[in-house]
Amino acid sequence: MNSTLQNDVLNSDRFVITVELVPGSTYMGAKVDTVLKIAADALADGRVSAVTITDNPGGNPSLSPDVIGREILDLGMDVAVHFTSRDMNRGGIESRALQLARLGMKNILALTGDYSGQGFGGKSSPVFDIDSTILLCFLKTVGGQQLPGNMAPAVFFTGCAVSPFKATEAETYLQYYKLCKKAAAGAGFIITQVGFDARKFQELLLMQNDLGIKLPTLGSIFYLTPRAAKAMYSGKVPGVVITHELYEKVVDEWQSKPRGHEASVNRCAKLASVLRGLGYRGIHIGGVHRDFATAQEILDRMEQIQDNWRDFLPEFDYPQKNGFYVYRRETAEVVSSAPHLNELSEQAALKEHLHYAFLKKTHDLFFSSDSRFSSSLKKLSRTLDTPSRESILLKCLEDPGKKLLLGCLRCGDCGIQHLGYLCPESQCPKHIRNGQCGGSLQGMCEVHPDRQCVWVRAYKRLARQGRSSELAREFVPPRMWELNDSSSWLNFQLDRDHQSVSCSIANYCGSQNRCVRQDELTAKTASITLLNTRRP
Ligand code: SF4
Question: Residue 255's Cα: distance from chain center in Å?
Answer without folding.
Answer: 36
